[in-house]
Design a protein that fits this description.
By secondary structure, the chain is an alpha+beta fold. Strands 1, 2, 3, 4, 5, 6, 7, 8, 9, 10, 11 and 12 form a 12-stranded mixed sheet that branches. Strands 14-15-20-17-19-18 form a 6-stranded mixed barrel. The chain is elongated, with a radius of gyration of 34 Å. The protein starts with a helix and ends with a helix.
Length: 785
């Protein structure tokens, strides 16, 4: 009885805990938004014009506005000014942004005080690069727009922080130093730009209307709007978290199936103990209902106690959730009580198990009232017998497929069903986990098909095409290269981040999902989610515009878009974006304005290239960076592979499906062991008769081992193909959902190894169980009616 209680408690606790973890993980980003007061969108001001900021804050529909300004400041290390653009981000909170709205997440230490003038916070990458920790001091040199020194300032690092929204594409991660408002006001003479967080009265539903208002307002429309829409960010964050939450939910469901199977087997064993006293109970005159209650009472008590313990275990281990990167932004961690998952799930689990007990008890009380079950022997053992297979092998196969004539054994059908379900869940988890690992391990699968990329000032700088041609064309290690331009466009009235591609040598471009690549001046390729959102299909015509000019393009294909574009602004990412030729993008956004000859011109901002197999590309990167092709020292630098939010989260949880499969496999072996033990007890009369007829202990072990082997092989034959199909279907659904090519990876060798290992382990387990707990022949026969 206590074994059943502990089994339900342990496995049920795992099931309820992971279901609660799935719910907690799925709801974390929404809780984070509320906690940090995340804006609905952010608007960039290119020039040091705080009047524009004030005008935007007063625009109709604005509920709250908070701004940080970019200051022209450089870290000073050992007396040397660091001008590498990657490490010169310096953000001053003008009116509380990062402190009261869009609050930063503290990794260690604390946020600077709003009125402090000598405190600073650093993001993790900047702190690591500068080699400083909380409590250390850092120096920064401030300069005006003409690079004239405004003096140095020293600050004490009081915190290491992550800037919102955190669960984003790597292209959106903001790295730099953060000053509180009091310090910011002292350095406005170093102001370069401003990013303004806007919360709207209508929330994200009012973004389009608000942007239309800004474009029509002469106080703010002197420059094109650069925005970051947090409605898109929310979708990307939830998309990144969704697989993790779903995996937890599936794990919980699978564990729930296992605990029901284990509970049913354990309950059947407890009820079977009444076989000796069954006639005595009948003779006492109790009715069938009382009989069923009596034989099922101890199993019911064990299950009820185990279910209550399972709920307690789920609450006790709730502090581990959520897991992965999402834990960083969780407003609260620690022990929690999820009423729906723990209490509701525990009640469902208890009812399912008690219902199983009721069915088993009812069948048990009817057993002596019915004629013995006439069972036709399976054709397989008959064929084996005719083929001359030794008797233990034939009997083991018969035990695997044929229930006991007098007991209507629950073990046969229950074991096959539970074993097949466990195999399906395990194999599906392996296929999904392998596909996930392959996606994370191969950047080309999430859009990064080139070897190296150089970007100018986070996508805000300009690369002169003629200068880049003269520079890159002389490098023999470069086998193919393209220039890339970033700009937003509208497609059929919907704002979409776009790439303008200038193929200079070879074909260096994002990978194709469907259709064909862009070849003509009036052709466009879209992300898989974008084409779905717009209701378009390959071959359709779409209106592409920027400002007042509109041009018709033909949709020729869908692409896997990489996460790239202007830092902190709306950009292409998995499933989202548009690609047209660079000349076509210029014709839409800045017609007649030639790069290098007009201030309004749209210029390339990045170069992507492939190198020869014998070259790492390091020399090419150094030569391009040293040439300062954007005209700013340290302004052009290598952009490493940038992963979308979903890929970042996948990378952190890539082992989780494998762990899930391993735990399911262990649970399946445990269930198999319980089944074998129960089968041995159920077949004790048959085994006793066989021993009376001269069966040796070795032959008994061979019989039970054969039963184990045949049962497992059948579950593998059925479960593996179904599990592979389920894993492939699950992965292809996720692939379509995130905007990558659906290329599931089936680990054939791993599956073969797991199958062989399972057969060996379960056969050894059967042999071990057959060797222990012997019941004497007299005792076995005495328990029969």
């Amino acid at each position: 009885m206590w074994v059943l209680t502990l089994t339900v408690a342990a496995v049920g606790g795992i099931a309820l805990s992971t279901l609660a973890g799935a719910r907690r993980t799925a709801s974390t980003f929404a809780a984070y938004e509320r906690n940090v007061r995340l804006s609905d969108l952010a608007v960039n001001t290119f020039e040091p014009d705080l009047k524009r900021v004030e005008a935007i804050a007063r625009a109709p529909g604005v509920k709250a506005s908070a701004t940080y300004v970019g200051l022209n400041a450089y870290p000073v290390i050992h007396g040397n000014v660091v001008r590498d653009f990657r490490y010169t981000g310096f953000f001053g909170s003008l009116d509380g942004r990062f402190f009261t709205q869009d609050r930063a997440v503290v990794v260690s230490g604390r946020l600077p005080g709003l009125a402090a003038t000598g405190e600073i916070a650093l993001t993790p990458d900047i702190a690591s690069h500068l080699g400083v920790h909380v409590g250390d001091e850092v120096d920064y040199r401030f300069e005006d727009a003409n690079s004239k020194s405004l003096g140095d300032s020293r600050y004490r690092v009081v915190g290491v922080v992550r800037l919102p929204p955190v669960i984003v594409d790597e292209n959106d991660i903001i790295e730099g130093a953060v000053l509180p408002p009091a310090s910011t006001r002292r350095h406005l003479d170093a102001l370069v730009y401003a990013w303004q967080g806007i919360s709207l009265v209508d929330g994200t539903r009012g973004i389009d209307r608000f942007l239309a208002t800004l474009r029509a307002d002469p106080a703010v429309n002197s420059l094109p709007l650069v925005t970051q829409r947090y409605d898109t960010t929310r979708v990307q964050a939830q998309q990144a978290i969704h697989p993790e939450a779903l995996s937890l939910a599936l794990f919980g469901a699978a564990a729930g199936i296992v605990v029901v199977a284990l509970g049913a087997l354990g309950a059947a064993r407890l009820i079977g103990r009444w076989s000796v006293d069954r006639l005595a109970l009948r003779a006492s005159g109790i009715d069938p209902r009382q009989f069923a209650v009596t034989v099922g009472l101890d199993a019911g008590i064990a299950i009820a106690a185990g279910s209550v313990l399972a709920m307690a275990i789920a609450v006790a281990v709730s502090a581990v959730w959520p897991i992965g990167p999402v834990r960083v932004i969780a407003p609260t961690t620690g022990v929690s009580f999820d009423i729906t998952a723990v209490l509701g799930g525990g009640a469902v689990l208890m009812m399912a198990l008690l219902g199983t007990v009721a069915v088993l008890a009812y069948r048990f009380q009817r057993r002596d009232r019915e004629a013995p079950l006439r069972v036709h022997p399976s054709s397989l053992p008959v064929a084996m017998s005719r083929a001359g297979v030794p008797t233990p092998g034939v009997l083991g196969t018969r035990f695997a497929f044929t229930p006991d004539e007098t007991r209507r054994s629950f073990a046969v059908r229950g074991t096959l069903a539970a074993g097949t379900a466990a195999v399906v869940a395990t194999v599906a988890a392996l296929v999904f986990g392998t596909s996930l690992g392959a996606l994370v391990a191969h950047p080309a699968r999430y859009g990064w098909t080139w070897d190296r990329m150089m970007i100018a000032e986070a996508g805000y700088g300009n690369l002169q095409p003629a200068r880049m041609q003269a520079l890159v064309a002389t490098m023999p290690d470069v086998t193919a290269w393209s220039l890339v331009t970033f700009a937003p466009i509208t497609v059929n009235g919907t704002l979409v981040p776009a790439l303008g591609l200038d193929l200079r040598k070879g074909n260096v471009e994002p990978p194709l999902v469907d259709g064909r690549a862009v070849a003509g001046a009036r052709e466009i390729a879209l992300g898989t989610k974008t084409i779905e959102q717009l209701g378009l299909r390959i071959g359709d015509r779409a209106r592409v515009a920027s400002g007042g000019k509109s041009t018709e393009f033909t949709v020729v294909g869908t692409l896997t878009f990489p996460s790239m574009g202007q830092g902190g602004a709306d950009h292409t990412s998995l499933g989202r974006g548009a690609l047209i030729s660079s000349d076509a993008l210029t014709g839409v956004v800045a017609p007649g304005a030639e790069c290098g000859k007009s201030q309004d011109a749209l210029c390339p901002q990045a170069v992507i290239f492939d190198v020869t197999l014998r070259s790492s590309g390091d020399q090419v990167v150094r030569r391009i960076a040293a040439a300062n092709p954007d005209g700013t020292v340290g302004g052009t630098y290598e952009q490493p592979v940038t992963r979308a939010a979903v890929i970042r989260n996948f990378g952190a949880m890539r082992s989780f499906p494998i762990v899930l499969a391993s735990v399911l496999a262990i649970a399946a072996v445990l269930a198999f062991g319980v089944m074998l033990y129960g089968t041995k007890r159920a077949r004790h009369r048959d085994l006793a008769v066989l021993q009376t007829l001269g069966f040796t202990g070795r032959q008994v072990r061979t019989t039970l081992t054969t039963q184990s082997f045949v049962t497992l092989v059948v579950t593998l034959i059925v479960g593996v193909p179904v599990g592979v199909a389920a894993g492939r279907a699950l992965w292809m659904h996720f692939a379509r959902d995130i905007g990558v090519a659906s290329s599931p990876s089936v680990p054939t060798l791993v599956l073969v190894g797991v199958g062989v290992g399972a057969v060996l382990v379960c056969s050894a387990l059967a042999a071990a169980l057959a060797s222990v707990g012997h019941t004497s022949i007299a005792d076995a026969l005495r328990t029969e009616d």
